[in-house]
Amino acid sequence: MLYPNLDTVVRSLLLKEGKSLHYYINYLAHACAGLRQLNTTTLRSVSSKKLPVNSYKAVTLPCNYVDFIRVGFAVGENVRPLIQDNKLNRLNNYDGTGKKVVYDNVLPDDTDISCLIDCVVPYDYYWYSHFGFDVSRSDWKFKVIPERNEIQLSADFPYDFIVLDYITDGLESDAATRIDPLAVAALEKYILWQVAIHKRGIGDGERAEAERRFNHEWRLLRAAKSDLNTREDIVHAFRSGYSGTY
Fold this sequence. Notes:
Blueprint: H1 6-17, H2 24-43, E1 46-52, E2 58-60, E3 65-75, E4 78-81, E5 83-84, E6 93-94, E7 100-101, H3 113-119, H4 123-130, E8 141-145, E9 150-153, E10 161-168, H5 173-177, H6 184-198, H7 204-225, H8 231-239
Parallel strand pairs: 5-8
Antiparallel strand pairs: 1-10, 2-9, 3-4, 3-10, 6-7, 8-9
Helix pairs in contact: 1-2, 2-6, 6-7
């Protein structure tokens, strides 16, 4: 199957609009922005990477990262997911030399936290053990920290690598040169909408019409990419939302 790319989409649109290549860079800039929006909201270009864990148990996010799908570690052919924990500290910990280090598992008065945990039944353990969840690795957790451009892991995470499944911005070389054919019409309408917004002498009505045409193609694209394609898919999704009580 032959896939269109940004260059062919822009050149084809210029030809249909009767525009010269003088407008190529302008249209290409709008095409990049449109592809990024369509990818993050509808196309959902997904990438998986094995990433190294640094000395203070953090992982640098890929440059094309938008949102995570799963953070885990490899166990043979499987990936064991970690648990997201928003209680992990957003701030780095430093030693006396200013080097970033992992946090110690102690309170300010030097009391070992693990000692306190051993003396009580953890809340998480009660719920996870009584309602069928796997608690064997519930202590290995993560938190995405955008301002640091990192994923922070638990201080006791023992492995040197994690596996990150994530949504990309769609502008890496493979995605930009292999655009989903179903998205071409919506991408073209996005370009024309942005051209109308930034062009002088165009009335609000024409801009609104350009936006309406884009939204129409966008809805068609979302419907085409939906997983609910048959009656059986819809019935299964409806029934899977219900289960017996514990």
